Amino acid sequence: MATGTIISLGLYFIVMLGIGLFAYRQTDTNVEGYMLGGRQLGPAVTALSAGASDMSGWMLMGLPGAMYVSGLSAGWIAVGLVLGALANYMLVAPRLRVYTEVANNSITLPDYFENRFADNSRLLRVIASVVIVVFFTLYTSSGVVAGGKLFETSFGLTYETGLYVTAGVVVAYTLVGGFMAVSMTDFVQGCIMFVSLIMVPAVVISELGGIGASIDALDTINPALFDAFMDASTNEALSVIGIVSLMSWGLGYFGQPHIIVRFMAIRSVKDIPTARNIGMGWMIVSIIGALMTGLFGLAFVTGNGNEIDPETIFIYLSQILFHPLVGGFLLAAILAAIMSTISSQLLVTSSSLTSDFYQAFLRRDASDGELVIAGRVSVVVVALVAIYLAYDRDSTILTLVSNAWAGFGAAFGPLVLFSLFKREMTRRAALGGMVVGAVTVLLWIYLPVEIGGQKLGEWMYEIVPGFILSSLTIMILSKSGSPREGVVDTFDAFQTKLSEK
């Protein structure tokens, strides 16, 4: 590995650890400070933290790879994600920030569900927590694997060493600084990703002789690359169902715990419009950069007579077109994407284990200091399990990420939306909607049923039926009973406080 690349990566790791130490000194020692940053995140940190924890390695590897193979038709998923993220800022962010505070200062999503519906049985909390712990442990493992493979293919280290380096740095700053460290490192990582996704496609286009020459080169390869309604990899037209499936990724935003927890932590509802503008601007520019990297990267690779794994196009270009010092910075962007998501998932899982299991069932009178320690121990435990799972490369199939996204989106998405808007929603409806959404996704993935020769998940993305059936369940069950005592009063108090903001 070139010296310049090593220097860039070394500086990156030092900065991440330094931020963790800084956050440790700035964060309150109570549980709200460790898990929500004391609800004091500024709009810029909120926006880029939400974006960086959302995008993960798919922004720099998966999306460019899809564009490389399928052309503009892969852009429908980007359209759906942008619309979903915007709706999340508009519909969920301000209401969830206020309601979680009104509902007994809820710190986690399961905590909010229990307090919102006065669930004394704690069944809502338990089911939601199990979903979070199971899916996020596997999700975290997939991120650790991505880091391991990056170190193995780009840095000449063993796969196992890559696992421990990736997880070790993330655990270090998450363990020390908690939510504030995760959010601040996400902010820096989001900036790195943003700059990288502007630099790489710009240099590629320049190398190809400008935008006109780049388009001509792609047209020579395959004119279908510019047809948004045709899959260039098969030269077959996309069906309406196919387009809906791609765009439906946007529905997942309403139920992603590691994203919407940022809305719970922002310092004021008045900061949300600013956070929305920053976050959406960052997202749109970054996604366009990722799409252009894949599309024009294809022209560059083909013109040089090479063949590569499509998902490594960003890595390939960063090493071929840039000085090693800059190339190291660009590789750090991939690590930033991977680590920002791992850290968020670690903290959400840790928060759930601490608040929703340890405090709720084992130590109800635990002090804030004890809960912070329990949270830190949980971070280490989850990371070790993730590393263990990552040793088996086949255990982190790429489709697991999309399945987990669909599972969270269908189980939690309708529940979050209805809980924030439907005054008469009942506990039974919340339980039913969550279970139906999760079960529908699992059945859609694993049932041996085919439509037109395609498995159900290939025919339509599982989040669509899951989200629809969960929503219908909530609406039907809410009409068959009444909210528990005090639930409507709390909703009215929430509405009043929201209007005052």
UniProtKB/TrEMBL annotation:
Main location: membrane
An example Gene Ontology molecular-function term: sodium ion binding
Membrane topology: Multi-pass membrane protein
Cellular localization per UniProt: Cell inner membrane; Cell membrane
Keyword Oxidoreductase assigned: no
Residue stretches spanning the membrane: 6-24, 67-91, 123-142, 162-182, 194-217, 237-256, 277-301, 313-338, 371-391, 397-417, 429-447, 459-477
Reaction catalyzed: L-proline(in) + Na(+)(in) = L-proline(out) + Na(+)(out)
Pfam families assigned to the protein according to its UniProt record, in alphabetical order: SSF
Keyword annotations from UniProtKB, A to Z: Amino-acid transport, Cell inner membrane, Cell membrane, Ion transport, Membrane, Sodium, Sodium transport, Symport, Transmembrane, Transmembrane helix, Transport
BP-aspect Gene Ontology terms: proline transport
InterPro entries: Na/Glc_symporter_sf, Na/Pro_symporter, Na/solute_symporter, Na/solute_symporter_CS, Sodium:Solute_Symporter
Assigned GO CC terms: plasma membrane
Domain of life: Bacteria
Protein function: Catalyzes the sodium-dependent uptake of extracellular L-proline.
NCBIfam families: Na_Pro_sym, sss
Family classification: Belongs to the sodium:solute symporter (SSF) (TC 2.A.21) family.
Protein name: Sodium/proline symporter
Gene label: putP
